[in-house]
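Researcher: Next sequence.
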Amino acid sequence: MNANQIMALAAMCQVAIQVQKLAKYGQAQQSDIEPLLNSLVITDPDNVEDVYGSRRELYSGYRALVAQLSAGTEKNVELVKYVGGLIQLERILASKPEALNKLGSEIQTTKHKLTHLELMDESIIAAFAETYATVISPLGQRIQVFGQPQLLKQSSIQNRIRALLLAGIRAAVLWRQLGGKRRHFIFAKRKMLALAKEQL
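Model: Next structure:
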């Protein structure tokens, strides 16, 4: 267990927190969303920090992770379900080369659009959302989003949530590539907590 694995986990937690905010209140922190979406177009990083800019960009993710791992705090059950769902979906994705290839080509297509559009432009977010809908959703293991039905019917909210979940898959890929395992949540919890606290 190392700081880079914790960074990928913090990114998944930050995704989960922002999905919760969008689904329940219809708004989220743009400053927290931007580094997550930007990670999708960092396709050839030299190191883990290149993916998210810096650990400071994931402050709310680290904070949520510390809260989850600390004994005595009230658990955020939805966050656990979102992060667990992302890890599970990524494992299915990793076993399907065609889906991986399609994901890569669609991300490249969206990346090219950034030469004349901003990352947070509605059409870029919609493109990420469409990639999630066409590549990730058909994998079969859907992530149930909990929130206000009237908000979840709005296409702009749907697009942001799907784009964030795609960024969550990116973080789950990184987690696995860095040696992250499900058993760490059981056997390395204390180490994970110590590493996460170091970043706050």
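Model: DSSP finds eleven helices and no strands in the chain. The CA atoms of residues 89 and 141 lie 6 Å apart.
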